[in-house]
Amino acid sequence: MKKPGRIAPVLALALLLSACGDPEPQQTPEPTPPPSGVAVHWDVLTPRPENIAERRYEGYTDRLIPAVDYGDLMPYIGGEAGTDWEQSWFYGLATHDGEIVTDPVYTEVNALGWFDYRQGKTRHEDVLILRSAVPTDEASYPQDEWTPKFEDRYGLAAIDGSWYTGQIYTMLVCGSQLGALLFDTAGDAVMIGLDGQEIFRWKAGAIPVDGLDPDDFFGWIANTVGPYMEFMSGYDEYNEPIVRYVDLRSGAVYNERPADYDDEYVEQGNISGDRVITGIYGENRLEDLEGNVLLTTNGRLDWFYVLYGDELPLCVSTIYETDEETGEYIVTKFVYSRDGELICRVQGEVMQWGDRLIIADETSYRVTDLEGNDLIRLTRQPNL
């Protein structure tokens, strides 16, 4: 096969010679047949969509810079890491209108949430929980093939970006309607309020709850109900659980359930506002409360878990298929409005954050509104 680089000078010389002297009538040349076995159909190729990404700051931004004019912030997916059996994402922060505030430096971004037993649903406070990863301290851990190469760091920030603690915590114990209880790098347990200020601190080695140890957290069972954290400290001689109750307003610890501890649960089922998901004979439906069918699908039909805000959830139909030629397992998600209208189809990740969708599809990372209009679109990068 001839090298393509040798063709260009010959064509250039021919064009130069043809430009000399009197012009002559030109005949339309016969089309040159393509090389044997190769045919390019340019008319059917679709150009890759251009990126949509407005940035607040010009340079690489590896942390949240507090400011008072962001408005509410939200995560976007900007990178990925994982294996054949586990997928994980890297997240950045952006404004509600799609202006990028940080690069994708966080391994997880959540709104501080707690479960409202009376309403039977999760509620969110105006605080972001930001998780990142730092290299493992070689002096603290033996460096062998089983040693994790990275360890977690956590930070809290106002949803509007007006304050930020920095990534100074090693572990999140629980979130509540009052704030979050975390361990810092010194081993202290610290309760941080919704304004970013410290409510109380238990010094390392003097934590008044047996079993609440950052070095032995695999057996933890912590649950928040109202202003209290319920923590299982272990088992007694009769193998019954030992439970302690922490008042997150003050740090007071009780051996018995407080009188105003209320964990009565209200089951909501598949009802969301004025809509309900029903299923019969392998057919799933979205209906209004009068029984009018708005959507019918043979895929699994669920409500989105709304990651932040009071926006009612959209519904997603998930179809599981196997490619007959490759044997590859394919999962396709169809996102529908509450009226049963298709918004988008995704083979990948899709999440609802208030009135925004966070998407990682086959070719791009996107943030859209609930009508499917892109506010952020970035070319999807390969695994790191």
Detailed description of the structure:
By secondary structure, this protein is mainly beta. It has a domain at 271-379. The protein contains 1 helix and 27 strands. It has one helix spanning 7-18, and strands at 54-55, 73-82, 87-95, 99-100, 108-116, 121-135, 150-158, 169-175, 179-184, 189-193, 198-202, 222-225, 228-235, 241-247, 253-254, 271-272, 275-280, 283-288, 293-297, 300-303, 315-322, 329-336, 342-346, 349-353, 356-360, 364-369, 374-379. The protein has a 4-stranded antiparallel β-sheet with strand order 8-9-10-11, with no helix packed on it. A 4-stranded antiparallel β-sheet has the order 12-13-14-15, with no helix packed on it. A 4-stranded antiparallel β-sheet has the order 16-17-18-19, with no helix packed on it. A hairpin with a 4-residue loop joins strand 26 and strand 27 (374-379). The longest helix is centred in the N-terminal third of the chain and has 12 residues, at 7-18. It is globular, with a radius of gyration of 28 Å. It starts with 6 loop residues before the first helix and ends in a 5-residue tail after the last strand.
